[in-house]
Protein: 3'-phosphate/5'-hydroxy nucleic acid ligase
Amino acid sequence: MSGELFEQYIHDMKIVQHFAMLSRQAIMDEIVKGMKLHVEEQFTTIHNCIDTDAMILRKGAVSAKAGEQLLTPINIREFASGKR
Structure:
């Protein structure tokens, strides 16, 4: 995939990722509020790794760069632990 179609695809993927991030944030806000918790640190992990500079697109995967914080999705955790 290249050219205009590629640009449209990346654009759409970024919109979907942003929506997913907002959805996760809304869910977490409700949990924190309902349980009367105090958040000390917060970050998000995108589970569709897009790096257009390196031409990498991994759906359902996280970035693999050294030193990054990430939340491991349950479907990845299973394989990372060696349990199948």
